[in-house]
Amino acid sequence: MACESCKIYVREALDEIGIEHFKVELGEIETRGDVSDEEKLKLNNKIQTAGMELLEKKQGVLIEKIRKVMIDYVANSEKLADVKFSAHLSQELNHNYTYLANVFSEVEATTIEQYLIALKIERIKELILFGEDNFSEIAHKLNYSSSAHLSAQFKKVTGLTLSHYKALKEKRRITINNINKV
By residue range, what is the domain housing residue 1? Predict the structure, then answer.
């Protein structure tokens, strides 16, 4: 589960199937009692229609926890400016970073670093689309050493410069006065 609407969808699916629960968080469900295999199958089928999957294996659960920490870290990176991600992840999940990185790479076929960069790039795109921050402010918010570092990484991943991406956004926008001219 990656967002609040996902949590709502899962709660509704649990209620519909009749599975009593007391906690539905991002990547985590706690039930009041045992859940039968049939109920698990029904729940998995229901949530798959929304692009989610029920994970029970220890590794799958750990991967979801790693993802959640990464998403939170990127969303709150300005507040965590002095915290190195590897130390933050280890502290949050109470595991050695090397172990977490190995499990993640084994299951996801990408590294934690590559996944974190992809999350940051999506956050940068979001901030550019909001248009409230300039590139230096975005770099600061996401803990890049400089806007040049941010620009280089953005171009490497997307193939576009920050300015070009911003210009594409502007071209897609249609002013209210020009709506019927399209």
Answer: 1-54
